[in-house]
Amino acid sequence: MSGDILSQNEIDALLSALSTGEMSADDMKQEEGTQKIKVYDFKRALRFSKDQIRSLTRIHENFARLLTTYFSAQLRTYVQLNVASVDQIPFEEFIRSIPNMTLINIFEVPPLEGNILMEVNPNIAYSMLDRLMGGVGEIPGKVDNLTEIEMKIMTNLFERSFDNLREAWAGITDINPFLKEIEVNPQFLQMVSPNETVVVISFNIIIGESSGMINICIPHVVLEPIVPSLSVRYWMQTNKKEPTSNQSMQLEKRLKQTQLPIVAELGTGRMTVEDFLYLQKGDVLSLDRKVDDPLTIKIGDIPKFTAQPGQLKSRMAVQIIETLIGGDEDDE
After folding, report:
1. What is the structure's pLDDT at 203?
2. Phi and psi dihedrals of 92, rounded to 5?
3. Do both 183 and 274 map to the same domain?
């Protein structure tokens, strides 16, 4: 009882029971002292900690943002994708939760061993197909098997979509996902044993006026080699990495070799468009500076120095007189 939070109604009922004698303080102490037993289902062994589930959620929230951009471009319509839930369940339970006729993309993700599933709700799959074929994204009343041409179109769409997973996982490990095959009947899948723990990431997706679910199923055997990398401690250590001395030297070397445009500005002037159109060789332009005034030297578009014009050997040159104060980009 000490670990529970009672509502105001429950508190009032408890006080009323004590005042009427229906319950005594000794009964409450005895109930509080009894050992509470929680039921544990060994078929649903939890292989991932809450910390690791949160890390997987962050990764796939980034994946959802990347997929939103990708699908919007490919389908040429408004697409919204977001993570609905992240759960760890037995593989058998995942298979029972999806329709008998659906679109299942089976991916390999080397160097990790095993396969990853992307299950796409049939309504969403047909809406995508209709958009790719030039339609408005209508969903047919009856879900049928895809033809070879339709299967090829969907294969190209989802094969390129998993390039975004590589980018989403880049902070944890480098993977090279590729589409192995597409299945429409989940009963034919023999990926892992029925009791194997899998992580199921469910996405809500909206395509125009259509909506549905996309599920990604990742078996524990696939994630096992990188489980330590899913902890918050690993993320914090990764974020705190400082550049090595060699990296700093390489960066400094490249900065010193960067080329910048330098402009010696003689002055500025104004004229009408009509005068500009009739300019000819030999015409004289009136500027806002005197002949003996120093020139402004700009690095890019930022004034940095003043200089005196002259000649060095057979070339025109300028001699820097002083540095301009406040000539930084932030002060412009």
Report:
1. 92
2. -60, -40
3. no
Instruction: Note whether residue 248 is domain-resident.
Output: no
Q: Is 27 a domain residue? A: yes
DSSP structure string for 217-268: EEEHHHHGGGGGGGSHHHHHHHHTPPPPHHHHHHHHHHHHT----EEEE---
Q: What is each CA distance from 100 to 96, 97, 186, 189, 229, in whole angstroms?
A: 9, 9, 6, 12, 35
Q: What percent of the chain has pLDDT over 90?
A: 3
Is 323 within a domain? yes
DSSP, collapsed to helix, strand or coil, labels residue 34 as coil
Between 240 and 286, where is the model more confident?
Answer: 286
Give the model's pLDDT for residue 40.
53
Average pLDDT on 222-251 reads 70
Structural domain range at position 23: 8-37
The structure tokens 């004289």 sit at 284
Distance CA 115, CA 175 (A): 12
Indicate whether 193 and 155 sit together in one domain.
yes
Q: Is residue 296 part of a domain?
A: yes
Q: What is the mean pLDDT of residues 138-159?
A: 76
89 and 226 inside one domain:
yes
Q: Are 216 and 267 members of one domain? A: no
What are the beta bridge partners of residue 108?
Answer: 115, 178
Confidence of residue 197 (pLDDT cuts 50, 70, 90): confident
Residue 275 has pLDDT above 60, yes or no: yes
Strands of the sheet containing 178-183, edge to edge, are 79-90, 197-207, 210-219, 115-120, 103-108, 178-183
210 and 179 within one domain:
yes
CATH for 276: 2.30.330.10
**Of 215, 239, 263, which residue sits at a domain end?**
239
* Chain centroid, CA 42 distance in Å: 35
Locate all alpha helices (DSSP H) within the chain, ordered by sequence: 8-20, 25-33, 50-75, 91-97, 122-132, 148-161, 163-168, 220-223, 232-239, 245-256, 273-277
